[in-house]
Fold:
Amino acid sequence: MSETKIPYKIYLEEQEMPKAWYNLRADMKNKPAPLLNPGTHQPMTAQELSGVFCEELVQQELDNDNAFIEIPAEIRDFYKMYRPSPLVRAYCLEKKLDTPAKIYYKFEGNNTSGSHKLNSAIAQAYYAKKQGLKGVTTETGAGQWGTALSMACSYFELDCKVFMVKVSYEQKPFRREVMRTYGASVTPSPSMETEVGRKINAEHPGTTGSLGCAISEAVEAAVTREGYRYVLGSVLNQVLLHQSVIGLETKAALDKYGIKPDMIIGCAGGGSNLGGLIAPFMGEKLRGEADYRIIAVEPASCPSLTRGVYAYDFCDTGMVCPLAKMYTLGCDFIPSPNHAGGLRYHGMSSILSQLYDDGFMEAVSVKQTEVFEAAEMFARVEGILPAPESSHAIRVAIDEAMKCKETGEEKTIVFGLTGTGYFDLVAYEKYHNGQMDDYIPTDEDLAVYRAKLPKI
Amino acid sequence: MSETKIPYKIYLEEQEMPKAWYNLRADMKNKPAPLLNPGTHQPMTAQELSGVFCEELVQQELDNDNAFIEIPAEIRDFYKMYRPSPLVRAYCLEKKLDTPAKIYYKFEGNNTSGSHKLNSAIAQAYYAKKQGLKGVTTETGAGQWGTALSMACSYFELDCKVFMVKVSYEQKPFRREVMRTYGASVTPSPSMETEVGRKINAEHPGTTGSLGCAISEAVEAAVTREGYRYVLGSVLNQVLLHQSVIGLETKAALDKYGIKPDMIIGCAGGGSNLGGLIAPFMGEKLRGEADYRIIAVEPASCPSLTRGVYAYDFCDTGMVCPLAKMYTLGCDFIPSPNHAGGLRYHGMSSILSQLYDDGFMEAVSVKQTEVFEAAEMFARVEGILPAPESSHAIRVAIDEAMKCKETGEEKTIVFGLTGTGYFDLVAYEKYHNGQMDDYIPTDEDLAVYRAKLPKI
Structure:
């Protein structure tokens, strides 16, 4: 098909939307390492996991074999309200960069949660409802995941209890108010509502909280209440499974126009967006059917893939969660408070960690001022104000497009634009006012946390 | 075509997008009254207007004859970045209301300005660029229009100077920051930069400003600078012309599925959204080809159509602008500061005023707590957090759907969902906290302003 025929935005028809999620693990020779019981260091059984997670989600978490898992009709109906998301040809960015590269981005921000998180939130809420539960608990940092989950719970009329990192609760009242609009209850973490919260408050009076600590509280709140389970917005296998809808739509849209990407770029915090975006492409790569460069982009201030170690670690600060084998900086690692660009989690999805360790993908880290520079350029030419997280991928897409300009190569670049930055304007303001710095942890900093990794 | 075939979202293909705007005035028997020179009370000539507005926009402002005006390719290219906007079938809202009515909404919020305002901003920036101007000036209240214009100016590399109502400047720093991201300069109004600003500051020390005052400043800044013109986001004929893209897309999407609406509902502040949404439908009605109920919804706290008078009035507080014949509450009217729901302009587009006066459309006013109640219900079932302005239309769409439930009629309702409420969470917070009241001006209040109308 000729170049000029490709529209600015490729939308799939409703009937072209995926009917099954793709489970990348089925095509992995080296499966991701199992979650371990933090007490016995033995693999968590389905029974153990189902105290924390919904039953059907436990099955999905443990399923390394089935390549496709049907998306229930109720979830597909919800997807139809905000999906398919557009695959956008970045004509204006290409023109601005004067590059021969062809740039596409899959834009997941056109829903009220403002990001891709809703794709898994609705799935997890559905299975909780199906199991007859009263509600779910979770944690949220910046608030994207909490917003997504509150929307999903509102749709299925489930109770939704969100532990929000205290500093975000106080600094991001608008996110909190969106969650309230959807009927969620939002508690600043660490709180006095849980044992782990009280303990952290006693040991660190005046703490503004962390994601790892909020996870501990949300898990405790779930396991100590009748009819509640815990849900998580990233890292887990089940979340990457649900997020495969991003990659499946992307691939279907590209296939429709006969486009084969050379590289696929995504930002990586816990890995949910990247894992979902690359899933079907990585599948082809693992099966030897096609080759792609796959690039994970992380912040230089929280560099789990590029400077972490591949080891078993706790998922949370309170160490109440199972252990996961992953690229990690240590579960106590918290990036500098000057880091405004999201992607603050200390570890990385086990699936992506294994794929990275096996050499199937690359990782690069970028400094936050460079990220905001890319974000602002992108906003001006493409008209979308990107989330700081998403802008990590923009940065590297621009860098790769500029390499094409030097070499004259007409490479096709696809990147994930995970969300919008409407609730991140404090960070943009810092950038405009020249108050943003580029903190990078030293080797000595990292060694401190690494020394505390559990010995397994 | 059978009911079940209608998707949740109807997207036009790129090639189905409108190539010309529709100029409703061509089909009006009673043309809208001309703008008058505030000194001579004679109709403004093209020459007079072109001191304030771009030349081609002046032609559009005065053109009562040409039914279609081609959309330049450069503007159509920009439209392709965020248009076509989806026409959404509100299946979930219908289910929640348990109504036999079929509800559709045209959603204009999927762009970074968060509203339909971008449709005219890009057109006005284009003509300014084409004329070789350096930049444009404007005013903004809540910030939607200023954001849209800053995006448009950034795209065409024009200087953009925004006078932002002081109270919004201080209370909405995020909107200001988005405008800065797009390179606009934003000045709180009343400022000390203009003669009218200095005068208002001297007469009303400590004033937090008003839209009418910011308009006066923006106009003065444009006419006193070399290479600048003033642009306005609503009320004017040219703006309604550009916004006809909303209605044209809506009609094309409905026609594609053989759907004929019974009623079309839009919120009305200055009239830009409503005028655009209804344009092709009203055209059919004026030509006697079809009949539709067309309903303008305004806030009970600023009821220009339902309680104003049809008379010549100033468009701005400083009385530097031309006079327009419109339904107006008087140019000094400012709704209660407790009014959080937008749509605060004292007057109404001359086109819509004439159509209303001729009986071609209805108007209703709604209280703001009822508006937020509708907004929250809509957010929960349809997943989109609506702007307070847009929620006026939601309120009446729900009311009409509930009437259908009583009568059993399967009416087809189309309403305009003009934008998202991400920057309106202070208002939502007020609503959640029970701090919102339903101010309605008394007849005595209105009489005071009415007495000050110019005698023409």
Summary: Chain B has 18 helices and 15 strands. Chain B has a mean pLDDT of 94.
